[in-house]
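haha ok so turns out i had the wrong file open the whole time. this is the CORRECT one, sorry everyone. sequence first:
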Amino acid sequence: MTQMPTYAAASAAGASVADLSLPQAETGRVRDFIELLKPRVMTLVVFSGVAGLVLAPRGIGFDAGDLHPFLALVAVACIAIGAGASGAINMWYEQDIDAVMNRTKRRPLPEGRVEPSEALSFGVVLTFLSVGLMGLALNWLAAGLLAFASFFYVFIYTIWLKRSTPQNIVIGGAAGAFPPMIGWAAATGHVSLPSVMLFMLIFLWTPPHFWALALFRNEDYKKAGVPMLPVVAGERATKRQMLFYTFILTPFALAPYFLHVAGLFYLCAATVLQGLFILSALRVWYDDTHKYAKIMFGYSIFYLFALFTFMMLDKVH
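then structure:
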């Protein structure tokens, strides 16, 4: 008789623990699905998309003819969801690679926290949702560009190029260069030379940015059998290519001023930022360790954020 209350208390306590653990498990599941969206990568994608919206002739604002802030928010959400959806499909397809690499082995799929079929369905549904909403709320040109960017990232880069050629990031980098063009199209309904320039800026920035990472993650890519340039051609050839792309990036970094997208303040800031980017590539060239490759990788992210920030601050129309 004396044990009955003890059992009852234990059962009640067990129920309480179960009640407490259920929300924790659900929170963990939500966190896993958010991780599938590659939120850190998405940050730069969203920011460059916002830049396209702001820099477009009919940018974000309350004046007549401007894109309403609510519609701008919808456009940004669509760009973010579309980019995240592509990231989820990428993780589904590359789960075997991710399981081998130190940088990615803690992702939800290699650790079994999300089923592969769930990740694929999640990515596909969000892709259609983002494209459909962009078309209905903004315009179908922006929706078409968003759809093409997703197609390019999933099929051209992830499935075809990444495992077949050391030029994977050169060609595949186009997928990440679309957001400012999508933002521009969402605001204006068309694509023009300045938006193409913004595309080219990110397109040419991507190889030195990503190869800096590949230099100090070389062993990871070797283990995974991914033919990144340092694995196939060696570090010297990779550094040479980094220098080449960093130099040819220069006119595109300065072009917003000459295309009347941004003013003199931007030109001065971009000249300094580009000079430091070239200096970073030169330091990598003369460095026998991976110290300056890590520094250049970090600086390259700051560089692109800073360029778009100064463009938006110094918008001329």
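The domain at 30-189 is CATH 1.10.357.140 (Tetracycline Repressor; domain 2).
again sry for the mixup
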